[in-house]
Design a protein that fits this description.
single chain; about 220 residues; alpha/beta; 9 helices; about 45% helix; hydrolase activity; hydrolase; SGNH_hydro_sf; SGNH hydrolase; SGNH_hydro
Length: about 220
């Protein structure tokens, strides 16, 4: 049985790859030429949190055949909820970021558990603080079959750090042109990882996954 080359997991931001937004038709016609891989499926859900995606994965929502690559972009809803609760208290915000990072570590453990031979590509949130990005990058360093990529540089102006509405009309969700930029960013890495050489012997020795194995035992 042949599986997908690429599976994309996330929230409403990534849902647009499916040609829907909130389950309703959205830019399907426009984004068909902007897909990061022809043999891909977007398994995204509006308003998803780290925990809800983790629960879906733990309860069987992974492909029967391990995809070559799984791309994940999630955490914006968690970060927004945390900042609303923490208001402007710096210590509370730092604590919230740590909680989100722990949740992301658990999510990666669930992905590894459900797709043991798959390369996992973690996308940086579009765009968030450096502390968040640094923490997410650190979670991928110990596993050579995990990769970190930031594709949000074009979504903010270099001088004022303001959102570019040309690509994110509502300030968060990419339109067809925004998806094209993301696809251009992802494609070189995905082409490399989906090649036959990159996916040969993809399952690593157990000792290379100690951190994630420990997290898997503490999943939601």
């Amino acid at each position: 049985m042949q599986g997908y080359d690429v599976v994309i997991y996330g929230d409403s931001i990534s849902e647009n790859w499916r040609g829907t937004s909130g389950g309703l038709p959205y830019i399907r016609k426009d984004n068909t030429s902007s897909r990061p891989d022809p043999n891909f499926v977007a398994a995204d859900m509006r308003a998803a949190f780290l925990e809800t995606l983790g629960q879906r994965l733990l309860n069987g929502q992974t492909p029967k055949v391990d995809p070559k690559v799984a791309v994940v972009l999630i955490g914006t809803n968690d970060l927004y909820a945390a900042t609303q609760c923490a208001a402007q208290d710096e210590d509370q915000l730092k604590s919230a970021v740590k909680t989100i990072v722990t949740g992301f570590q658990q999510l990666l453990a669930a992905m590894r558990q459900g797709m043991p031979s798959t390369h996992i590509v973690v996308q940086a949130l579009y765009p968030r603080g450096e502390d968040m990005e640094d923490n997410m990058f650190e979670l991928t360093r110990s596993d050579p079959f995990m990769h970190y990529i930031s594709c949000g540089e074009e979504f903010v102006t270099p001088t004022s750090d303001a959102i570019v509405k040309e690509y994110l009309p509502d300030g968060l969700h990419p339109n067809a042109e925004g998806l094209r930029l993301i696809a251009e960013c992802l494609t070189p890495l995905l082409q490399k990882l989906t090649s036959s050489n990159a996916t040969t012997n993809a399952i690593q020795p157990a000792q290379n996954r100690v951190d994630l194995e420990a997290s898997a035992s503490e999943l939601w």
